[in-house]
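Re: your question from the hallway

Yes, I did run it. Sequences:
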Amino acid sequence: MAVVKAKLDQGPPNYKEMLPPIITENYGKWAYHEIPSPGVLKHVSESGAALFSVRVASPRLVSIDFIRDICVLADDYCDGFLRFTTRNNVEFLVSDEAKLNPLMDALKAKGYCIGGTGPSISNIVHTQGWIHCHTAATDASGVVKAVMDDLYEYFDTMKLPAKLKMGLACCLNMCGAAHCSDIAIVGVHRTPPVINHDVIRKGTEIPSLVASCPTGAIRPDPKNKSVKVNDDKCMYCGNCYTMSPGMKLNDARNDGLAILVGGKTSNARSAPSFSRMVIPFLPNTSPRWPEVVAAVRNIIEVWIANAQKGERIGEWVERVGWERFFSLTGIPFSDMLIDDYIFSRETFRTGAAFKY
Amino acid sequence: MTEKKTPLLDELEKGKWPSFVTEIKRAAVRSASAAELLPLLERSYRERIGHWKHGGIVGVRGYGGGVIGRYVDVPEDYPNLAEFHTVRLLQPSGWFYNTKTLRTVCDIWEKHGSGLTNMHGSTGDIILLGCKTNEIQPIFDEFSEAGFDLGGSGSCLRTTNCCVGPGRCEHACYDTLDACYNITNEFMDELHRPMWPYKSKIKFSGCANDCTSSIARSDCSVIGTWRDTLIIDPVAVKEYAANGYPIKSQVCDKCPTSCLTYNKETQELTIVGEECSRCMHCINMMPKAIHPGKEKGATILIGGKSTIVQSAFMSWVVVPFMKLESEDDYEPFKELMRGIWEWWDENGKTRERIGETIYRLGMGKFLRETGIPPVPQMVFRPRANPYVFWNQDELDKSGTMLDGSAL
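Structure:
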């Protein structure tokens, strides 16, 4: 066999080879779109051509068998083309309207979930969790699965007040835009790393380990040929564990999850906003995290009951006031929800007008 | 080998939402490492603790990143996970695929890895989860031959991504798919060979709906906009009215600048163009009747990142409007980015994102030293304190009273 030699810097595959003919022909000429039914988008071109996209749920962590299965469906109904969305769902691209219903029937028969369009929840953008990340305070895929099973009625319908974009980050590095989601679930560590001096002495570059700490909590300990941690300065980020397995951060008794709400990234109506912490800690109850599932459902149900049509969660809370959010949801308030990090002052109420 | 039963994970095969546990089980049929991932994950579910560690440099010849080393912390119990590295592949713009390309990914990954993937990672890449160290170079060689390239990792330009853009969206104000492809290819060296203080990301969104969440997730957000006035199709407005669509309450009353007026008698919708902030609300509500203006381009924002270390930042405006209609228009953008990265490279501390460097040293210094002109669109409101660090070289340093006598 000839030795294959890699070409360097050739870049991504050319997207032009990945577009179905209807898109190549109508590229940049789309006039408008409609949502004929939940999970189905109809884009109409200036030429009158119509493209139907059927959105199907994905767990994001998928086997090559899953990919091969959706390829068979795309070959049968979509001339061999499909795409993935920014929120990790699959979109089948149907250019022949006659194939739309047969595709939907085939998808349903095989158990695929169609939905995630318009005022619905599309999927929860999430991280690796216990499947593959070293700093995870919780699993990601498992929490997402449990929450999406519970919220399924809001995936395959369009009955929410507005879009619901959720994110889950499995530690406070917050990969995956959880910090600007309508509802964010965030894994939290709460205890400083436990140092294993033997492991550190065996092969850790002490200067790199010291430099990895964002708050300067780690100091060299020359006597021990190891390091010391100033526990008061530790923010539990796990950067030191990335540098050395001798800085174990995982703590089964104290790790858990926090809930933040009210973020968005769209500019529609109001400026993009950060999610705000409303529940500082829930226990890590694997395998189905009932406390997290119940907390998310409560927030969504109170939002549905109180929001005006078209109001994202953050827009609703900002209209009624955060003090009303707590009284309406019954979520207890605590000092942990008052910012004491860098940009705290702008969150304090510097006015005398508020509600009870 | 450890216990094969996975009662806790099996609970996650119940319910309507597609199950990742089922996916791991499918991969486990043909992959020893995927098969061992099940009992390892079951153990994490039982102990409520993760079992992975970082460390140990892995990679391919010629690149400084693209593969992330991953090792189980109990290799004696899970020998097939002793090395379980992640490979990142650059995805095609907009995550469009033909099935031939997807099958190629599957075939190569079946041969060399666990058969598990993320379609896609948070940054945008195709993520191939789990391979041994000695497979990395063969994986890259074969993917390279098939037309793929590695994505970014470490202190480099990370993999870029973009929204569906003009491929399937009427709102796109520039060609996000082409801009992403062209600009990614321009910065291959920056992407494959980490040389900066920390990571840096670019995301391309075609309009202010920002479907890639670029403002939250990228150091440089390129968000489509227009500079003239949005276009109202009066005939289509009448159609919405005829269908009973509540134009006043759902569109005009929710316009943040109150620039739209609807006359119920004449069924006419009018706009005061100078007052419109181009937020996309009315266009989202009435896509058949309201369209972005003709003079299209993008707003360039800098600084977005997640929480570590100095809190989460959203990108802020540095160039309110830049034309991005053709390849020639990409040049000024590339020049701008080169200048910004160079400034950051000179001034940034290790593990400091560009937004944090600008915050620490001040927007004024950043703008002066990169030559970007200050404009009011950069701020929600001006400063409330008088502590301007005046450039003393620009002041009268003669040291005398107005009449010329000594101070």
